[in-house]
């Protein structure tokens, strides 16, 4: 089978009810989510704190699709085993998180998880060039990481295009994270992205007891993107 570059929508549970992750995950999956994006923040690499491996392990049984763990932490290496043991399918680290990203990617792959590499808005696409044979996904941040609900940074779209041509035929996903909604999704899809993370644009207006808006929001993002 050829590599799957079809559109995948990955709701970020950063915008879900933190007291109800299991039910929130089941609700968005029932309403059409392809992956579940899990934002781990340490209050050091980014100016916000979320949760760690214990929470990831607790929510894992509720995820039937793909558990996509985005580590916004520094250092990364001491915690890779714990996130892999928690059941992450993808573990993404930031190129800016330390001086030894090559080692970090090796360590992620050694656990059996797929390795993702995230780029902040200020980091050029070329930063991934020496690492392309070690990654399964590149995550282009289209906001500065730390918070949901921020405005999409349009100058990042060119970076996605550059990255797509650097990747060529390699089996590497391009993920977009930050400010994705029906107005920005078509721009990044046209530039070559296949995984679209969306927090506020999926969870807005809905809840576990009223999940219909989750489905409408996911369908609106999908419908905005030419197939
Ligand atoms: C930001 C996180 C994102 C965030 C996206 O630091 O990595 O995953 O939840 O949220 P929205 O879609 O609301 O920009
Ligand atoms: Zn994220």
Number of helices: 8
Major sheet strand order:
1-8-7-6-5-4-3-2
Poorly predicted segments: none
* Succession of helices and strands: EHEHEHEHEEHEHEHH
Strand content: 15-25%
The main β sheet shows up as:
8 strands, parallel
What is the subunit arrangement here?
Answer: single chain
**Rg from Cα:** 16 Å
> What small molecules accompany the polymer chains?
D-xylitol-5-phosphate, zinc ion
What's the CATH topology name?
Answer: TIM Barrel
Under the CATH scheme, which class? Alpha Beta
Spatial separation of the terminal alpha carbons: 19 Å
Q: What report would you give on this structure?
A:
Keywords: Carbohydrate metabolism, Cobalt, Isomerase, Manganese, Metal-binding, Zinc. Pathway: Carbohydrate degradation. Helix content is 30%, strand content 18%. It is of the alpha/beta class and 227 residues long. The protein has an 8-stranded parallel sheet with strand order 1-8-7-6-5-4-3-2. Helix 6 links the parallel strand 7 (173-177) and strand 8. Helix 5 (156-167) runs parallel beside helix 6 (185-191). The longest helix has 13 residues, at 212-224. It is globular and about 45 Å long. The two termini are 19 Å apart. The protein binds D-xylitol-5-phosphate and zinc ion. Zinc ion (ZN) is lined by residues 12, 37, 39, 70, 177, 197.
């Amino acid at each position: 089978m050829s590599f799957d570059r079809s559109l995948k929508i990955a709701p970020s549970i950063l915008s879900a009810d933190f007291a109800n992750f299991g039910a929130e995950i089941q609700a968005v999956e029932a309403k059409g989510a392809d992956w579940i994006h899990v934002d781990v923040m340490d209050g050091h690499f980014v100016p916000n704190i979320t949760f760690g491996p214990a929470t990831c392990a607790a929510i894992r049984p509720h995820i039937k699709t793909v558990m996509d763990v985005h580590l916004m932490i520094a250092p990364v290496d001491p915690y890779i085993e714990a996130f892999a043991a928690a059941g992450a399918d993808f573990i993404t680290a930031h190129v800016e998180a330390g001086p030894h990203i090559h080692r970090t990617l090796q360590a992620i792959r050694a656990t059996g998880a797929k390795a993702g590499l995230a780029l902040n808005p200020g980091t050029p696409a070329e930063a991934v060039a020496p690492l392309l044979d070690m990654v399964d996904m590149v995550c282009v941040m289209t906001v500065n990481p730390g918070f949901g609900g921020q405005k999409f940074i349009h100058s990042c779209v060119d970076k996605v295009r550059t990255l797509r041509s650097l990747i060529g035929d390699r089996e590497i996903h391009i993920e977009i994270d930050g400010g994705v909604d029906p107005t920005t999704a078509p721009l990044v899809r046209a530039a070559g992205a296949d995984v679209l993370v969306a927090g506020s644009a999926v969870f807005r207006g809905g809840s576990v007891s009223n999940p219909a808006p989750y489905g409408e929001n996911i369908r609106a993002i999908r419908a905005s993107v030419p197939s």
